[in-house]
Each structure stands twice: as C-alpha cells, then as structure tokens.
Automatic annotation (TrEMBL):
It comes from the Bacteria. Residues 3-142 form the N-acetyltransferase domain. It comes from Ktedonosporobacter rubrisoli. This is GNAT family N-acetyltransferase. The lineage of its organism: Bacteria, Bacillati, Chloroflexota, Ktedonobacteria, Ktedonobacterales. Keywords: Transferase. Signal peptide: none annotated. InterPro entries: Acyl/Acetyltrans_Enzymes, Acyl_CoA_acyltransferase, GNAT_dom, YitH/HolE_GNAT. GO terms for molecular function: acyltransferase activity, transferring groups other than amino-acyl groups.
Length: 286
C-alpha cells in the first residue's frame, strides 16, 4: 500500500468535493471547500492510495487554537488507517506551527479514533433542524440591520472574546458569500450585541456563525433570519451543548435535535465562551 498525503490546491477542489460527498453521503460542499482553501491555503490535505485520491481533511489555524474538519475517506478505502494518517499529518502540521490547542467535533463513529490520538472531550455539540412544516411567520423586529464591511473591525472585536480568537478573515468571507443574509444587532448604547449569518444552498439553510451577548439579542437575530429564510427549505443549526439558553430558544421556534457530536481538544483546552455560541459557522470552521 503506497499512501501519500500532500497539501491540496485549488486544482484538487473537484476531487476533494467528490471525496467528501462519498465519505459523508452529502450534497456538494464545493463552495465551503473553496472558502476553506482560500482562508488556509496550506492547511488542507489530499490523500492518495497507489495514486488514486481517496481521502481529504485539514484545519483552520486561528492562532490560540485550530479547528479540524472535513476529514473523510471514500467508503472503498475506509478502515485501513487512512483517516488516522490524515489526522496525524494535520496534527504534525499544526504542531509545526506551534498551535497550542486543536479542536474538532467528532461523530460517534469517529470519537474512538480521536481518543486514540489523545483528544479529550470537553462538551457536546447538538445539530438541530427545523422542518419546512414548522415554519411560522416571525414577529418583525426593528433593531436588526444588515452587516456591512464597514462593521467588520467592530464585529471582530466583539466576536473575539467569545470565539477565543480573532477571525475577521473568516467573518469577511461569510459576509462576501451572503451579503443580504448577514445580520447585526446593537444595544441601547449603539454597541454590537450579536450577529448571525444565514447560509443558504439549494437544499438547506443554516444559521451560523451566530454569536450573541444575551438570549434577547440572539432571539432578535433569529426572528429576522427566519423572516429571510425560504419557508420551503429546512433550516439547520450547530449549537454548543453548553448554551442551555440556546437550546430553549431554538426549541420555542420549532427546532429539534437530530444528532449529537463530541466536542474535543488535543493539548490544552481553548479559552472560549461557548455559552454565547448559538450557531457554529460549520463543522470545519467552528
């Protein structure tokens, strides 16, 4: 068995998309893969077995921590140690950059591998959805506006203490992709109190990144996002289990959990305020 792992390039995107569709039995992730490669050009890896592309994965390095995601192997090559090899390659790359903490969200089928690699669970992650039949016209809100590029510096400063790192490049990339669905709310003093980006695709919609200083701010953003959402499509959200207010809020708006993942870290635990995470950007971006 001749296994090679190399840094992926833009020329590998279609191959990587095919791998992830087969590995996760999911629709195309091409735009998300492109976004990840543009944000971290040196952090995504393509595995080949005897010259054939069979695995993909990588990470975004935020500095204080990195987030690993999109690690998948085509079904015909699974259970042969290839996923572990991709993870070991990714970990070695991050350790070479002196990254102090490596985070990921593991499925039930993957958690054993990550534990063998030294990852420790410190929370759970809930994946929730709201079916089209649950749609109900929300109450209009007035203190929510569209996020503008001019807000980016203030937004990054608001977000960093909660997220645990500066991620203005990631936020800018989502704003560029979804400019009419990037929402911002401010408190009575005019300061940012929360933001939410409604991501859309032909088959589903997702809420996140979504961070708020209070459940009241989070609810205002949720109401406006549902006002913008296509009522014919499912709406999904990835919620930190530590955010109990978020669970109650989403339950009131017709969301229910359909999957639970293990939030894990390698080396030191990252300092983040997960109780203010109402929606992750994605499984790969955190």
């Amino acid at each position: 068995m001749n296994l090679t792992i190399q840094t992926a390039t833009l020329d590998d995107l279609k191959i990587a998309d095919t791998i992830t569709m087969e590995a996760f039995v999911s629709p195309s992730r091409y735009e998300a893969l492109l976004q990840g490669l543009q944000l971290q050009p040196d952090g995504w890896f393509l595995a080949r077995l005897d010259g054939e592309p069979i695995g993909f994965g990588g990470a975004i390095n935020y500095g204080p921590f990195a987030y690993v995601g999109q690690v998948g192997v085509v079904p015909s090559a699974q259970r042969r140690g290839i996923g572990q090899a991709i993870m070991e390659h990714t970990i070695a790359w991050l350790e070479g950059q002196c990254c102090p903490s490596i985070l990921l969200d593991a499925s039930a089928s993957g958690v054993g591998l990550y534990r063998r690699l030294g990852f420790v669970e410190d929370d759970r992650v809930l994946r929730l959805s709201r079916e089209p039949a649950a749609y109900k016209a929300p109450t209009p809100v007035e203190n929510v506006s569209l996020l503008q590029m001019a807000d980016l510096a203030d937004l990054a400063a608001f977000d960093a203490p909660y997220f645990g790192a500066e991620r203005s490049a990631v936020l800018a990339s989502f704003l560029e992709r979804f400019p009419r669905q990037a929402l911002l709310t401010r408190n009575a003093a005019g300061q940012i109190s929360g933001f939410l980006i409604l991501q859309t695709s032909p088959v589903a919609q997702s809420l996140g990144p979504w961070v708020a200083e209070s459940v009241a701010a989070a609810e205002c953003l949720l109401q406006r996002a549902l006002e913008l959402a296509d009522p014919a499509l499912q709406v999904q959200v990835i919620l930190a289990h530590a955010n109990r207010d978020g669970q109650e809020l989403l339950g009131r708006y017709g969301f229910s959990a359909y999957n639970e993942l293990h939030h894990m870290h390698l080396h030191s635990a990252a300092r983040r305020q997960r109780a203010h995470f109402y929606g992750q950007a994605s499984m790969a971006f955190g």
